[in-house]
């Protein structure tokens, strides 16, 4: 990829702005000054990128996969209404790069949220057809017994729906902590299922998406996942998907 295009792909500005950076000796890749807009850059080989002496987060190209431990009071939206956007947690230049969340978490839900620019991967992982498991740690408002798990696993009728929605798994860790796994991603699904089963969600944390957990990231922290990590974690029936 030509240097000029590469800088644009990193969200570093328009064609004109990136050309200016190159012409003014502001671009260093792997400690070497880059002053030719037509130089060939292998994205995988870029280890460090400095703009005007300042290190910039290098975004893997052409596709990247981010694991964010979503904090509470952030919206999974590019156009948030009430709270800041989860995308505001990334460095400035990354906000110029097109990226989408893989499904949504409510503003008050915390935990594993994937973000990518790979539309095909996003579509496959969120399609109910692929039954990707999402596990939630639910803090219940009222102490519950085994019957809550049975109700959720047998299926509940959501108020505005005419189909029964089942939990793929539901286990009580203690009377007010439920571990619940679902394979669809309907609007407010966990909260609505728990309400339909006669209880209420106090707090909601997604601790697993596929087989990915928060990988010891604190709330608000994120990391890039390699394509290998993505393949490994979204393997189903011995077939990889997403690539
Ligand atoms: N179910 C919900 O109710 N909220 C979420 O954020 C995710 C699943």
Automatic annotation (TrEMBL):
Keywords: Isomerase, RNA-binding. One of its GO terms (molecular function) is RNA binding. It is an enzyme of class 5 (isomerase). PROSITE patterns: PSI_RSU (PS01149), S4 (PS50889). It catalyses: uridine(516) in 16S rRNA = pseudouridine(516) in 16S rRNA. Transmembrane segments: none annotated. GO terms for biological process: pseudouridine synthesis; rRNA processing. Its EC number is 5.4.99.-. It holds the Pfam family PseudoU_synth_2. Gene3D superfamilies: Alpha-L RNA-binding motif, Pseudouridine synthase I, catalytic domain, N-terminal subdomain, RNA-binding S4 domain. InterPro entries: PsdUridine_s_RsuA/RluB/E/F_cat, PsdUridine_synth_cat_dom_sf, PsdUridine_synth_RsuA/RluA, PsdUridine_synth_RsuA/RluB/E/F, PsdUridine_synth_RsuA/RluB_CS, RsuA_PseudoU_synthase, S4_RNA-bd_sf, TruA/RsuA/RluB/E/F_N. Responsible for synthesis of pseudouridine from uracil-516 in 16S ribosomal RNA. Belongs to the pseudouridine synthase RsuA family. This is Pseudouridine synthase. It comes from Neisseria chenwenguii.
């Amino acid at each position: 990829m030509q240097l000029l295009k590469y800088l644009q792909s990193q969200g570093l500005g328009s064609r004109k702005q990136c050309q200016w950076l190159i012409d003014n000796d502001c671009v260093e890749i792997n400690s070497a000054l880059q002053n030719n807009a037509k130089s060939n850059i292998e994205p995988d080989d870029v280890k460090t990128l400095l703009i005007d002496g300042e290190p910039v987060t290098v975004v893997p190209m052409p596709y990247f996969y981010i694991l964010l431990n979503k904090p509470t009071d952030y919206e999974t939206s590019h156009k948030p209404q009430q709270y800041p956007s989860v995308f505001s947690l990334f460095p400035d230049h990354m906000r110029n790069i097109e990226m989408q969340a893989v499904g949504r978490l409510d503003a008050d839900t915390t935990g594993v949220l994937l973000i990518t620019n790979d539309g095909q991967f996003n579509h496959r992982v969120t399609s109910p057809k692929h039954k990707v498991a999402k596990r939630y740690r639910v803090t219940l408002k009222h102490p519950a017994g085994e019957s809550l798990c049975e109700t959720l696993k047998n299926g509940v009728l959501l108020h505005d729906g005419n189909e029964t929605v089942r939990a793929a798994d539901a286990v009580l860790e203690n009377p007010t902590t439920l571990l619940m796994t679902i394979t669809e991603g309907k609007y407010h699904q966990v909260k609505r299922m728990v309400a339909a089963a006669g209880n209420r969600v106090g707090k909601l944390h997604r601790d697993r998406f596929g087989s990915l957990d928060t990988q010891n990231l604190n709330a608000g922290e994120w990391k890039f996942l390699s394509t290998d990590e993505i393949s490994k974690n979204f393997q189903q029936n011995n077939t990889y998907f997403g690539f």
